[in-house]
Amino acid sequence: MDLKGRVAVITGAASGIGRAAARRFAREGAAGLVLADLNMAGLKPVAEEVNGLAVACDVSREADVKRLVLQAEEKHGRIDVYFSNAGIVQRGGLAASDADWDRNWRIHVMAHVWAARATVEKMVARGGGYFLVTASAAGLLNIVESATYGVTKHGAVAFAEWLAIAYGRRGLKVSCLCPQAVITGMYKGDGGSAGVDGALSAEQVAEEVVKAMGAEKFLVLPHPTVLDYMRNKTADYDRWIGGMQKLYAKHLGEKK
User: Fold this and answer.
1) Using CA atoms, how far apart are residues 250 and 188, in angstroms rounded to an integer?
2) DSSP string spanning the chain?
3) 118, 38 contact by CB (below 8 A)
4) In a domain, 236, yes or no
5) Distance, CA of 49 to CA of 45 (rounded, Å)
6) Helix (H) or strand (E) run with residue 9 in it
7) Which residue in the list 149, 187, 229, 248 is annotated as catalytic?
8) C-alpha–C-alpha distance, residues 42 and 158, integer Å
9) Helices (H), 93-143
10) Residue 118 falls within a domain, yes or no?
11) Would you state the pLDDT for residue 24?
């Protein structure tokens, strides 16, 4: 898809990948940008910079997602591209609380479901559209520091796959963004296990998103080595688990 003349909604747009995508979409000639985030102090300057509409939105609430879509439609009459990008990261294993699991589930899975409910049928009725999901390499490979993150990012990938399967022949294009470490507000220290292959800037990731949209590719892999890791995983699952156990021990300080 060519972004020129398109109307796009981007969540998590006050910083990081969302902010970089807003700027990149604007340079591509998007006709309208609707930017959403909880951090309005950070969001408003980005919206002003790209001549977009800033909308306060908590994507963990379906009512907020519905309202975001409605405001975008009221402003521009349609949505051509929905970039469901907002996310969080929390460390935690078996001790993670039910509240943490629920929050991750709502933000990393249900936010995409709610957005798709509100947009996809309208997109295909107009002949097509584009739905982008920010998952993570953790959604393909898992991550040693956080059960809540790894599990729910797997859910994000699975939902993006389902959308592509169910609506791809009806004109909907779907991409799933799965980077390793990206230098954003969530990046800490050396990036942990996600940083083993280095960290990219949010601008580099946004560039890969635009390229993938132009080629209408499903998987967006700013770190190309992730594809090799996926192949190794499926070729010998037990060996891959063993390697991940070593990574777990290295990054969480275990002796064995």
Assistant:
1) 16
2) ---TT-EEEEESTTSHHHHHHHHHHHHTT-SEEEEEES-HHHHHHHHHHTT-EEEE--TTSHHHHHHHHHHHHHHHS--SEEEE-------BSTT--HHHHHHHHIIIIIHHHHHHHHHHHHHHHTT-EEEEEE--THHHH--SSBHHHHHHHHHHHHHHHHHHHHHGGGTEEEEEE--S-EESTT--TT-GGGGTT--EEHHHHHHHHHHHHHHT-SEE-SSTHHHHHHHHHHH-HHHHHHHHHHHHHHHHT---
3) no
4) no
5) 6
6) strand 7-11
7) 149
8) 31
9) 98-105, 111-125, 138-141
10) yes
11) 98
In contact, 88 and 99? CB cutoff 8 Å: no
Within a domain: 184: yes
| pLDDT tens for each residue of 217-235 | 999 999 999 999 999 999 9
Question: pLDDT class for 85, splitting at 50, 70, 90?
Answer: very high
> Tell me: the pLDDT tens digits for 61-75?
999 999 999 999 999
Mind listing the pLDDT tens digit for each residue in 182-202? 987 765 665 576 777 789 999
Tell me how many domains the chain contains: 1
Residue 149: active-site member: yes
Give the closest residue to 210 by CA, choosing from 246, 245, 175. Answer: 175
Pick the closest to residue 176 from 117, 131, 238 (CA basis). 131
Q: Evaluate whether residue 134 is within a structural domain.
A: yes
The larger pLDDT score, comparing residue 1 to residue 251, is at 1
- Give the CATH number of the domain where residue 197 resides: 3.40.50.720
In which domain, by residue range, is 114 found?
Answer: 7-225
Q: What is the DSSP string of 50-69?
A: TT-EEEE--TTSHHHHHHHH
